[in-house]
Design brief:
The complex is a heterodimer of chains A (95) and B (455).
Chain A: H1 3-6, E1 8-15, H2 21-32, E2 35-44, E3 47-55, H3 63-77, E4 80-85, H4 87-92
Helix pairs in contact in A: 2-3
Chain B: H1 6-17, E1 23-30, H2 40-55, H3 58-69, E2 73-80, H4 83-87, H5 95-109, E3 113-120, H6 127-141, E4 146-154, E5 158-160, H7 161-177, E6 189-193, E7 214-220, H8 223-231, H9 239-268, E8 272-276, E9 278-279, H10 289-296, H11 306-322, E10 333-334, H12 342-349, H13 355-362, E11 369-375, H14 380-397, E12 401-408, E13 416-418, E14 425-427, H15 437-440, E15 445-446
Parallel strand pairs in B: 1-2, 2-3, 3-4, 4-6, 7-8, 9-10, 11-12
Antiparallel strand pairs in B: 1-7, 4-5, 5-15, 6-12, 13-14
Helix pairs in contact in B: 2-5, 3-9, 5-6, 6-7, 7-14, 8-9, 8-10, 9-11
The chains are: A alpha+beta (95), B alpha/beta (455).
Chain lengths: 95, 455
């Protein structure tokens, strides 16, 4: 098994653009021991979309706890945050 | 550094969030062949222990996977070896007792449904089968999660018409015993021609006698994903384009099912079985097979052309999905349950969709007459006639067909039955008023059909 792939998650943040989104999300990730490997941002249909590729190998909490933490953060900053293991995207869109 | 594709990620999230892509069911198939004994109490306790041994952390692990991928797993289910086979060895067979034990085990492990209260009588009855049939209505009326199914015919054996008539009695009796809940018991019972042994969908899931000790089978869903993709096409796009688009969407949906199924099977430490690549609707807007027909250009489900639309859809779903999974099985195709599909409900209320049109559609869909409410005073012989017609379509066309009709006691056409949850709301449909009585009471077996000289 490719351990590296197993630990990769995609975090998708969407909502109305405002000051401090990247800062608050990356701060929360740093606190959880999650490493950001890549970030892409774009505006789609007037919405701010930020997609982060992260490595959760060094994460000090369980996946469930991490998701709950991100859910709290999403309510705090008024953005929608999705956290998903990366392999679902790799598999669904390639033969 | 690993790359990722933004548009693919957004597309996936939209599929889940807006178009209701979900894993309809993860079904743990479990053999009970080692649970036979001469005492029904002992048999029941063996069954109970086995279910708890294999499934006690099933729900928790499925929830964990759901969380990891943010894709809903709507139902967790268990499919057992047909109980008629297991209970038959008992000196004191009490199938109702077994049913209650199984239902209790289902409650204990927290699954949504537990299937396999079943019998395979396509060629004839054993003594045990006859006792089993008698006890189905009571068993279904005293349980909540238990689902029951019977196989009445195959393309190789023909159709057991004695069993067809008995099945109509079972349906009616079950409806009567559960009349205070719109006869919901009958919604948990289905009869088949050419039943498949690895189907994860209820009410017909059971673990066939040819299946392994245990396996995890997955049923995917996502009619909303397909209809929204077709809506995005130009109205003048030809069938080649429509069919290719369905194939692409089916591929994506199936891959998601395979991934989730394999991950869950790994966690449960059991083999992965099959992906049933079916488009299964729910009573939510945007999650309807009938809406796919609309997207294709039919004003409403049931309009002339619907059978062709369904045939193409069913075929393209299979073609697209087959590449995405290592093992495809179950029923695979497009389901057309009336009460579980908002577009179908609307079409039948508007008078566009009738039982006769639905019967024609079952010759090209994945299963058969499904979740159709009929007047409570429909004679048993008429129900038997309905079943016989459906068995004929399956037998001659070498496909699985099924009947799940609910005679709603105390109600008649024009009214509705409300089953709640995934089972939805069923407008009660008119049936043909002329009698089938002498025909269905002839009994015996319709001989196996010829498989050449096709026309």
């Amino acid at each position: 098994m490719d351990l590296n792939k197993e630990n990769q998650v995609i975090i998708t943040v969407t909502g109305k653009d405002k000051v401090g989104i990247v800062a608050s999300v990356s701060n929360a990730l740093a606190q959880s021991g999650v490493n950001i490997e890549d970030i892409k941002q774009t505006i789609m249909q007037d919405s701010f979309v930020m997609i982060m590729l992260c490595d959760i190998k060094g994460m000090g909490i369980t996946f469930k706890e991490f998701k709950e933490k991100m859910l709290l953060l999403s309510e705090e900053i008024g953005m929608e945050i999705w956290v998903q293991k990366k392999d679902i995207f790799d598999k669904m869109h390639t033969i | 550094m690993q790359n990722f594709n933004q548009s693919q990620i957004i597309e996936t999230i939209e599929m889940i969030k807006i178009h209701h892509l979900d894993i309809r069911t993860t079904t743990l198939s479990l053999s009970l062949r080692d649970c036979c004994s001469s005492d029904v109490k002992k048999t029941a306790s063996k069954i109970y222990d086995k279910i708890l041994k294999y499934a006690s952390n099933f729900r928790m692990l499925a929830d964990e996977i759901e969380n990891e991928y943010s894709i809903p797993i709507v139902n967790k289910r268990i499919a057992l070896t047909p109980i008629s086979l297991i209970g038959e060895s008992c000196d004191n067979p009490d199938y109702v007792y077994l049913a209650k034990t199984i239902d209790k085990a289902g409650d204990e492990v927290g699954v949504d449904f537990i299937g396999g209260f079943s019998a395979l009588v396509d060629k004839g009855f054993t003594k045990g089968d006859l006792k089993f049939f008698e006890q189905i209505p009571e068993a279904l009326s005293l349980t909540n999660k238990l689902c029951s199914s019977v196989n009445l015919g195959t393309s190789k054996a023909g159709v057991n018409m004695d069993a067809v008539l008995k099945t109509a009695d079972v349906i009616k009796q079950t409806a009567i015993l559960t009349k205070d809940k719109d006869s919901i018991g009958a919604a948990k019972f289905v009869c088949f021609c050419n039943a498949v042994t690895d189907n994860p969908f209820m009410a017909g899931a059971f673990c066939g006698v040819n299946e392994a000790e245990c396996a995890l089978n997955v049923g995917v869903s996502g009619p909303g994903v397909v209809s929204s993709a077709i809506e995005g096409l130009d109205k003048s796009a030809d069938f080649k384009e429509v069919s290719n688009l369905i194939k692409k969407m089916a591929f994506k949906i199936t891959v998601a099912g395979e991934l989730i199924g394999k991950r869950l099977a790994d966690k449960l430490n059991i083999p992965f079985g099959v992906v049933d690549l079916s488009l299964a609707p729910t009573p939510n807007r945007g999650d309807s097979v009938a809406e796919i027909f609309k997207a294709m250009g039919l004003e409403m489900a049931g309009a002339h052309g619907t059978t062709m639309a369904l045939a193409m859809l069913n075929d393209a779903v299979k073609k697209g999905g087959i590449m995405a999974s290592s093992y495809v099985g179950g029923l695979s195709g497009a389901f057309i349950p009336v009460s579980e599909d908002l577009g179908m409900i609307e079409a039948s209320k508007a008078g566009s969709l009738t039982i006769d049109k639905l019967e024609a559609m079952t010759s090209v869909c994945s299963v058969g007459l499904d979740m159709i409410a009929i007047p409570g005073d429909t004679p048993n012989s008429t129900i038997a006639g309905m079943i016989a017609d459906e068995m004929a379509i399956g037998m001659i066309n070498k496909k699985t067909t099924a009947v799940r009709v609910i005679p709603v006691i105390g109600k008649t056409s024009g009214q509705s039955a409300n089953f709640g949850g995934l089972l939805g709301v069923a407008p009660i449909m008119k049936v043909n008023p002329y009698s089938s009585e002498i025909f269905v009471k002839r009994g015996g077996r319709v001989p196996a059909p010829l498989h050449s000289l096709n026309n």
